[in-house]
Amino acid sequence: MTSSARPHLNRRLAEFGTTIFAEMSALAVRTGAINLGQGFPDTDGPEEIREAAVRALRAGHGNQYPPGPGIPELRTAISAHQQRRYGLLFDPDTEVLVTAGATEAIAASLLALLEPGDEVVALEPYYDSYAACIAMAGGKRVPVTLRPHEDSFRLDLDELRAAVTDRTRLLLINTPHNPTGTVLTREELTAIAELAVERDLLVVTDEVYEHLVFGEAEHLPLAGFPGMRERTVTIGSAGKTFSFTGWKVGWVTAAPELVAAVRSAKQFLTYVSSGPFQYAVAEALALPDTYFTAFRDDMLAKRDLLATGLAEAGFKVFRPAGTYFVTTDIRPLGTALSQEGDGFAFCRALPERAGVVAIPNAVFYDHRDAGAPFVRFAFCKRTEVLEEAVKRLKALA
Ligand SMILES: *Cc1c(COP(=O)(O)O)cnc(C)c1O
């Protein structure tokens, strides 16, 4: 959609069209294609957690405005989760804030922490709300591009250091990274932490896929690195970990002064949200380790099914170390099939040609050319759905 179709939209937001997900999901409905575009599971999370939400609702827990920072039970559960998994201690009263999903946590953090004109260094390609939220806060985004290197996308630490200027206020990090599936290594995170300390930067880190990490890779929270505890805002969410993306329960953990700042913005966005679901998520976070392991193993099997199928269909596959997305390079399909390496054209044609919907990674880039040949597929779908998608994609060639 061009901005002339939206004459009332202000200049800060004019560059942001309708999200690609709306266009591609409409295309999926119109063509009856399998939608591997948007990242939401096609089965709900644990039955006992659904029941916990029903119980809360029936008992009248959370049906009226819950407390502004989130219900104490959930803040305590978030704190206990950070301690149990990572050995990080956060005071549930002053260092934890419940938000309307990670999406609000990102928006509130940027609105609270940025002055107009401040620069934000962010890893490109970025999750689609980052650029818009930086713009709404009056900030200026400075992308550092993750580049394909053998089988994954990697961060160039020299490029990262060079991106920081005297106007840089914060680093916006995402690990495990959507859409590339990159999980930042201990060395990379150490370098990020050293840079943040040296240049006295705040760090906002989106770790919503913390439980979806495969094989050798390990999720290490940035807040655990030297000098980071007091300068890092960590963002988590129940949506991805418990397969309840519609509940919109997210959170922030950070030092008291940072939580207080984020809360100041958050209280005027939604004030509060998801009352009964907060009770259910408190129970979910206390599930035994077997839940988290089984969830990860299930997604790992799905990753392998889709990644192997895509490779057999002729794509170059970047087998993700985390998240539930696979990024592919379409160029090995040949110039005709790959629409000359144009991911947009490829994704617009794919539903008619193969009955599958995917997302062109270029939408997540400022440097659109750098993302042009890459296309993302989600694998958080039932096995039979993925099998059918693979069958259709193999028929492409
Ligand atoms: C899905 C997603 C979010 C949004 O999470 P919600 O809790 O649904 O708001 C934020 N960041 C990344 C990287 C995501 O993939």
UniProtKB/TrEMBL annotation:
Catalytic activity: N-succinyl-(2S,6S)-2,6-diaminopimelate + 2-oxoglutarate = (S)-2-succinylamino-6-oxoheptanedioate + L-glutamate
Main location: cytoplasm
Entry-linked InterPro entries: Aminotransferase_I/II_large, Kynurenine-oxoglutarate_AT, PyrdxlP-dep_Trfase, PyrdxlP-dep_Trfase_major, PyrdxlP-dep_Trfase_small
Entry EC number(s): 2.6.1.17
Residues annotated as transmembrane: none
Cofactor(s) essential for the protein: pyridoxal 5'-phosphate
Superkingdom, taxonomy of origin: Bacteria
The entry's keywords: Amino-acid biosynthesis, Aminotransferase, Cytoplasm, Pyridoxal phosphate, Transferase
Pfam families per record: Aminotran_1_2
The protein's annotated pathway: Amino-acid biosynthesis; L-lysine biosynthesis via DAP pathway; LL-2,6-diaminopimelate from (S)-tetrahydrodipicolinate (succinylase route): step 2/3
GO cellular component terms, A-Z: cytoplasm
Localization in the cell: Cytoplasm
Gene Ontology biological process terms, A to Z: amino acid biosynthetic process
Domain Aminotransferase class I/classII large: 33-393
GO molecular function: kynurenine-oxoglutarate transaminase activity; pyridoxal phosphate binding; succinyldiaminopimelate transaminase activity
Function: Involved in the lysine biosynthetic pathways. It catalyzes the transfer of an amino group from L-glutamate to N-succinyl-2-l-amino-6-oxoheptanedioate (N-succinyl-2-l-amino-6-ketopimelate) in a PLP-dependent reaction, yielding as products N-succinyl-l-2,6-diaminoheptanedioate (N-succinyl-diaminopimelate) and 2-oxoglutarate.
Family: Belongs to the class-III pyridoxal-phosphate-dependent aminotransferase family.
Oligomer status and interactors: Homodimer.
Listed name of the protein: Probable N-succinyldiaminopimelate aminotransferase DapC
Top-level taxonomy: Bacteria, Bacillati, Actinomycetota, Actinomycetes, Kitasatosporales
